[in-house]
Design brief:
Elements: H1 2-8, H2 11-27, H3 34-46, H4 48-57, H5 68-82, H6 89-98, H7 107-117, H8 124-153, H9 158-173, H10 184-200, H11 213-219, E1 227-232, H12 238-252, E2 257-261, H13 266-278, H14 283-286, H15 293-308, E3 311-314, H16 321-335, E4 339-343, H17 353-356, H18 359-377, E5 381-386, H19 407-413, E6 416-421, H20 430-436, E7 439-447, E8 453-460, E9 465-468
Parallel strand pairs: 1-5, 1-6, 2-3, 2-4, 4-5
Antiparallel strand pairs: 6-7, 7-8, 8-9
Length: 476
């Protein structure tokens, strides 16, 4: 009966109940465990070299502490330890005196109490987990309370709000605050580690290889947080090229990959991948030519490889940027995907109010959202994009970055832009068309972290496959 009464209540009464719930929450103490906090700090003061380092390895920060004085003590201990100075009770107390913090944490008596609080550090790990759990609960309460308030205030931007709320909850699950930026020290460690890995690998690409040697040399591999735009006019083979990349990354390199196809169904994508992998011309089936025994073996082998791979395909037509980001986050959490490919950008949509009145604004939001997703998940994102009719208006049909539809935001957000081009489409006569048949180029027009230039390719139409080609050589 009570549930029925709530259901029939008006929106104003429901809002009053929500506000009342928020007030009740505000009056209650947030989840905390002061005893566990004291125990952790006590262990650190008694054996700083062991337990400060262990807490840092387990991701403990001063934000995890509920009591302000405990937060201050942990922060100072971490800073002193990082500087290489030995920590012991007297010098630690003096450091607090020098920084005028001793009285703020309760004086020397408070430090003595902490020092003697835990006679043994046997339960250190257990108490540390308690502290982190309480911090997680406080983060959930904070995020949900903010979401409730925003839900009343931002009722016209529902999709954007939902995306933001999910992003915050996802960050809590990952154990990190969204706004928290890495320190320069953390960044330099990461850069040095990548450099040492590069040297140990004999100069091999630092990122994910693409299967195309020249592209790997120019890009140094596809790296986390980067957005790679592959743009072309219709029928140039954009989908075939990106699936060649995914085939190498997912099947050859064994890296979990996700493809968002706004144009083709998942069955069509898998069909292309299967016959390209088996190097069997699908046109044979359409022409009634049956495969021989060797062809069947290759198709069976390719099918087994694809079935066992971690390739995930979402073929939602006109998917919104909010929905795509939500699905990508879940798949990153569940399967640890290492790369995302999207076919293609102009078929996506944004549901924000501003985007409804301007196509350029909509494309800008989608482009920025995809770049943000690459940084958030720390994986490369490959995005196909359509060019306008600019190439048709110039001799030879060579594309330029300015040919990108609604190009301003895309050019700005992309770390690398490759313009795919097949010269036979713009030949003056049939003889020239036959001569240039199969010739293709990927013009790397923008490369934020490397050189630009053209990469010669051969397009084998029957197999829907691009292969490396040397300049001025005859196509295969």
């Amino acid at each position: 009966m009570e549930a029925k009464e709530y259901k029939n209540d008006g929106p104003e009464l429901q809002r009053n109940r929500t506000v009342k719930s928020e007030e009740e929450i505000a009056q209650r103490a947030l989840p905390h465990a002061l005893g566990a906090e004291k125990s952790i700090l006590s262990s650190m003061l008694q054996d700083p070299a062991e337990y400060i380092m262990r807490s840092q390895e387990k991701g403990l920060t001063y934000d995890h502490f509920y009591h302000p004085s405990h937060r201050t003590m942990y922060q100072i201990m971490s800073e002193v330890s990082e500087s290489g100075v030995e920590i012991e009770l007297v010098s630690f107390t003096q450091t607090l005196v020098d920084r005028e913090l001793l009285d703020k944490i309760g004086g020397a008596a408070a430090i003595t109490e902490i020092y003697t609080y835990s006679p043994t550090a046997a339960h250190f790990d257990h108490h540390l987990e308690i502290i982190k759990d309480k911090f997680t609960l406080r983060s959930i309460i904070s995020s949900c309370t903010d979401a409730i308030t925003r839900s009343f205030e931002d009722q016209e931007e529902v999709a954007a709000l939902l995306d933001e709320v999910e992003q915050k909850i996802f960050a809590i699950r990952e154990g990190a605050e969204i706004e928290e930026a890495p320190t320069v020290k953390q960044d330099i460690k990461k850069v040095i580690a990548e450099f040492e890995e590069f040297l140990a690998g004999g100069g091999a690409p630092m990122g994910i290889t693409t299967g195309y040697k020249q592209l790997d040399e120019m890009s140094n591999g596809l790296k986390p947080g980067e957005m790679f735009i592959i743009a072309a006019r219709p029928s140039m083979g954009k989908t075939s090229f990106v699936m060649n990349l995914i085939e190498h990354i997912c099947l050859d390199c064994k890296k979990p990959s996700m493809v968002f196809s706004c144009e083709m169904t998942s069955a069509q994508i898998v069909q292309r991948l299967l016959f390209a992998r088996a190097k069997y011309a699908i046109t044979n089936l359409r022409n009634g030519i049956k495969p021989n025994k060797k062809d069947l073996q290759e198709i069976k082998r390719a099918a087994a490889e694809i079935a066992q791979s971690k390739l995930f395909i979402d073929d939602t037509a006109g998917i919104s940027i909010s929905e795509l980001r939500a699905k990508a986050r879940r798949k990153k959490k569940e399967e640890d995907i290492q790369v995302i490919a999207i076919d293609y950008l102009q078929l996506m949509r944004s549901t924000s109010k501003q985007a409804q009145n301007s196509r350029e604004r909509e494309i800008a939001e989608i482009s920025a959202g995809l770049k943000g997703l690459a940084k958030e998940l720390s994986i490369p994102v490959i995005v196909l994009a359509q060019l306008n009719r600019g190439p048709e208006s110039r001799t030879g049909g060579s594309p330029r970055m300015s040919d990108l539809r609604e190009s301003g935001s895309i050019e700005q957000d992309a770390d690398m832009i490759g313009l795919l081009f097949r010269s036979a489409y713009y030949a003056d006569d049939q003889e020239e068309r036959d001569e240039k048949d199969g010739e293709a180029e990927l013009n790397v027009a923008k490369n934020r972290n490397g050189p630009t230039g053209s990469i010669p390719l051969t397009f084998i139409k029957e197999l829907m496959r691009f292969e490396t080609r040397a300049f001025d050589s005859e196509p295969n």
